[in-house]
Known about the structure:
Layout: H1 2-13, H2 17-25, H3 29-161, H4 167-182
Helix pairs in contact: 1-2, 3-4
Amino acid sequence: MNSIFFLAASAAEGGGPLDAVTKTFGWNPQMFFSQVVAFVIVALVLKKFAYQPVLDMLDERKKRIAESLENAEKIKAELARTEAARQEILGKANADATKFIEEARAAAAKVLEVESQKAIATANQIIVKAREANDAELARMKAELRREMGRLVVETTGKVAGKVLTLEDQQRLTEETNRQLAA
């Protein structure tokens, strides 16, 4: 604070602040130039060995940070592409799986239909064979019944008539009985 008052007082005297400082502290040009040279040397040494490496390190750090950010963006974009590809693959896999399931269901339905048709055809064949066997058995039984009926008629007629029937009489009675049974 005192130096401000001192400078103000010397300015009032008309000498100016520089004159006042020079008178108070003195001026030694050799010392001034040697200090300027020392200051310049120290400034250059500091710039070369202290300040410049710090600036270089800061520049390197900025570059690494910029590269890291750029790589992070690239990784983020790649991750987004990968996620999109994954979603696409999953969607396609789900569609394929659904398609395969539908095809399997259709094939199973087709196999079921074919097997049902085979079972129905087999059942129909069994029914037809059973009917044929039944018809054959019925025809056999009817034929046997006719023979038995003819034999009984011939035997009964022979007993009722009290005589032995000839072969022609037996055939005639059998044919007549068969005609009456058929009607």
